Amino acid sequence: MALMGRMMSGPLLISSLLTHAERHSGETEIVSKRVEGDLHRSNWREVARRSRQAAQAFARLGCKPGDRVGTLAWNGHRHLEIYYGTSGSGLICHTINPRLFPEQIAWIVGDAEDKVLCFDATFLPLVEKLAPALTTVKHFVLMTSRAHMPASTGIAGLLCFDDLLDAETGDYAWPQFDENTASSICYTSGTTGNPKG
Asked: Cα(131)–Cα(128) distance, rounded to whole angstroms?
């Protein structure tokens, strides 16, 4: 008779990292600087809730497992929530290097077939310029609060990230899928020709 281990009974998914952090370190403080200039204070419980809300919001936008959600953003709490919300729900988080040339950014968004592009306010002028060329992108999401949304913009139907989350309950069960499923994609820089992903 073979002795079977009893420790792990599920796939090793990124959502399990967040679930563990919420369960065992829920009140541990997380501090990040926002592009608006202030500090944002949160904890793992709030990050987990907002990540579940992000997963719900992306589903409401029509994203299905395997779809790519691009991010053009600095490291901050909303970027973290998008990372967990996408990878935890079977979407693929496509982090875009903001230091690439605009033509390279447009090319990789198209090559990756990003369905949604989430971006910091810092990059609004760049995204406004590139938007007509980003034909795979169905939804543009500004990673900010309603108070910091621009009065007008060159992007038709621009969505506010915090509004998307506020419309969701966060009552979401992370799906189980093959742990070898892609969760993120990054493209190279500094190579010959177009970046490789």
From this structure: 5
What 8-state DSSP symbol labels residue 90? T
Domains contained in the chain, number = 1
Structural domain of residue 45, as residue ranges? 14-185
In a domain, 197, yes or no: no
From edge to edge, which strands make up the β-sheet containing 114-119? 159-160, 139-142, 114-119, 68-72, 92-95, 184-185
CB burial class (10 A; 0-12, 13-18, 19+) of residue 180? exposed
Tell me the pLDDT tens digit for each residue of 65-98: 999 999 999 999 999 999 999 999 999 999 999 9
The CATH number given to whatever domain includes residue 127 is 3.40.50.12780
φ and ψ of 68, to 5 deg: -100, 135
